[in-house]
Design the sequence.
């Protein structure tokens, strides 16, 4: 694994998140690891399955994972001086951390230094997911290296060769670099215009709603004998109630390599 390249990707992901609108700039450790993975994935598309960092990615409980990448996060956070927020919850034993880095110079420097497909993948993924853990995990689980592996196995980034498997690469196109690299500043201006139009539209709708007649007075239902007899009759149409049961379900380990995970025509 190339630690210097990993560090640069972590720094870049933090700097890219810092370019987002206020409220969407925080990222945590799981997000950072996944953004490095998506960068490697995008790079492998253009380099015959070779990744940018050379990281040995593994099918883990949290999707593609690398303990080596994870261990580089704290040194990078300390180096760039990112702001840290600790989140404590009684539901979990450990605290959660979120970081924000506002550094335009670092963003511009790495944006020029990193390969085009790598920078594009991170910008696209950070903008789409931010610190949305659920959405990000769902997405990385559908990338083709994950679909071809079972828990505990190392991920293979070799591209599908046959035409039948070309559809499998659709899941990584959103994170791969393309010719439509967007400008963060242009994006902010576009968002501001949309926000202004939305506010004007909402104001107009509010005025129209205020002119409408008031809604009719709510009449509560009458809970009398007829009501309860009717409810009992409707419940009887459903038949006998389903009895609750407890137990354990077991799945064959072969499910990880089954066609249902990779073939688009399998329901």
Sequence:
């Amino acid at each position: 694994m190339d630690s210097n390249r990993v560090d640069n990707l972590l720094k870049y992901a933090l700097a890219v998140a810092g370019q987002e609108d206020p409220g969407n700039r925080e990222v945590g450790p799981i997000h950072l690891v996944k953004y490095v993975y998506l960068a490697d994935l995008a790079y492998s598309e253009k380099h015959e399955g070779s990744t940018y960092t050379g990281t040995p990615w593994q099918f883990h409980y949290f999707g593609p994972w690398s303990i080596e990448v994870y261990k580089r996060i704290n040194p990078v956070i300390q180096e760039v001086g990112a702001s840290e927020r600790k989140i404590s919850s009684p539901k979990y034993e450990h605290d959660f951390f979120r970081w924000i880095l506002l550094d335009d110079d670092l963003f511009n420097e790495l944006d020029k230094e990193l390969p085009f497909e790598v920078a594009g993948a991170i910008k696209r993924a950070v903008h789409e997911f931010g610190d949305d853990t659920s959405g990000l995990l769902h997405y990385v689980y559908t990338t083709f290296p994950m679909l071809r592996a079972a828990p505990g196995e190392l991920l293979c980034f070799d591209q599908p060769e046959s035409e039948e498997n070309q559809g499998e690469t659709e899941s990584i196109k959103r994170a791969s670099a393309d010719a439509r690299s967007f400008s963060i500043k242009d994006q902010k201006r576009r968002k501001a215009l949309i926000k202004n139009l939305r506010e004007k539209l909402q104001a107009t709708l509010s005025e129209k709603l205020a002119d409408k007649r008031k809604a009719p007075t709510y009449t509560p239902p009458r809970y009398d004998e007829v009501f309860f007899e009717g409810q009992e009759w409707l419940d009887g149409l459903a038949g006998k109630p389903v009895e609750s049961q407890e137990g354990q379900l077991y799945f064959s380990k072969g499910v990880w390599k089954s066609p249902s995970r990779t073939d688009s025509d399998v329901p």
